[in-house]
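Quick one: C-alpha cells for this chain, please?
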Amino acid sequence: MSKIIIFEHINCTGNSLVVTTNTPNLILKEWNDKVSSLIVINGAWDLFDDCNYSGQHCSVHQLGGPTNDGVYPKWTDWNGTNDVLSSLKPQY
C-alpha cells in the first residue's frame, strides 16, 4: 500500500497527516496550502498545486529526496512551492 506523510513545517515537523489513497482536495482535510515537507513511506506519489489533480505537478517516491530515503525536508527537494499543495495521489 502506498503511504505518504505530509508535514506543516520544514524538516518534517509540526502537524502531520498520513495519506494512503487518492486525495483530490486537501481543503476537505483542512490541509490545503499547508505542506512544507513530507516523507514517502511506500510507493511513488504525484503532487499537484491545485485541487482535482491540476496545476503544477511533480512526483516523489520512497527512494527520492536529497538522501534517497524518501524524506523531503523542504518543498524545494521536490521542486515544489511552499504551502501550495492541494491534491495528491499514489502512482499505480
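The beta strands are 3-9, 13-19, 37-42, 44-50, 54-61, 71-72, 87-90.
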